[in-house]
Amino acid sequence: MRKGFDIFGKAYGVMFRNDLHHKDSVDYQIYKKMILINSDSEDYLYHQDISKVNIEVTHHELFSFAKKFRGESDIQTIKNVLGFTSNIVKNYDVPFEKMEFGGTEKEIIDRGTDWCTDISRVGLCLLQCLNIPCRLAILVNGKKAYNGHTVCEANIENEYTLVDFTYGVLGLLSKKYSVKDLLNKPKIVNKIYRSKLDLNIDLDYIAGLYDKAAIAEYDITKKHNFTMSKPNQYYLNMMKFSHDGLWKMGED
């Protein structure tokens, strides 16, 4: 199985190594252990028994807070959490150069964010506190530079299902769709995201992100480094130039 920074190619490897999260933080470590979804890893990632949430989750600082999102079913519970996280994103209005990244899930909630990796960790944490297994999924458009996104997969009735905590989208139409199911399926991706009627996004851009993907487990009951960070020079430079699909800083 292919694992780590370079699974999407050299250029994306450079970008992930220059991630703006602190290099000792859990967020940076996630990129080190992410596993590419391909024929070599499919059985390991999708055909094994789904791990149950660690019972120690009851000691997490957001365990009691998460109870407010409990619905009549796991699907309704997930939709409740999706509404919460996507509202954080919609209401966040801080200039990029003044943003903070990482920290504990509670710290992220308290300060707000529109950064997909941070809000994905919040959503994952709340679902695990509600005894719903959830893991991270990192997406990239391998055909274009600087096109990445982080979503999650939640366990609904023993099936992995896409959960995009940034946009408030659940991979559920007439059936459940995992990230693997959606790779290179732009019509289905468009349909899933279009089902969130209040979304004002470029659906072609979103569909392009489902070109390649990797999975990373994150157990909130384990001890992690939550050092926060500010934007680094790599990302400050990235945010300044127009994005035309080409690498601009010698990554390739």
Written overview of the protein:
With 252 residues, the protein is of the alpha+beta class. The chain has a single domain (5-236), classed as C8orf32 fold (Roll), CATH 3.10.620. The protein is 35% helix and 12% strand. The chain has 11 helices and 6 strands. The chain has helices spanning 10-17, 26-33, 42-46, 63-66, 74-90, 105-111, 116-129, 179-182, 186-194, 203-209, 233-238, and strands spanning 35-36, 134-140, 148-156, 159-164, 169-170, 212-216. The chain has a 6-stranded antiparallel beta sheet, with helices on one face. Helix 5 (74-90) packs antiparallel against helix 7 (116-129), helix 6 (105-111) packs across helix 7 (116-129) and helix 9 (186-194) crosses helix 10. The longest helix is centred in the first third of the chain and has 17 residues, at 74-90. It is globular. It starts with 9 loop residues before the first helix and ends in a 14-residue tail after the last helix. The mean pLDDT is 96.
Q: How does the major sheet shape up?
A: 6 strands, antiparallel
Q: Give helix and strand order, one letter per element, not per position.
A: HHEHHHHHEEEEHHHEH
Number of strands: 6
Anisotropy-based shape: globular
What radius of gyration results from the CA coordinates?
Answer: 17 Å
* Range of helix content: 25-40%
Kindly estimate the percentage of residues that lie in beta strands according to DSSP. Answer: 5-15%
Annotated CATH architecture: Roll
The CATH class: Alpha Beta
Major β-sheet strand ordering: 1-6-2-3-4-5
Mean pLDDT: 96
Task: Count up the helices.
Answer: 11
Amino-to-carboxy terminus distance? 23 Å
Low-confidence stretches: none
Number of domains: 1
Structural class: alpha+beta
CATH fold field value: C8orf32 fold
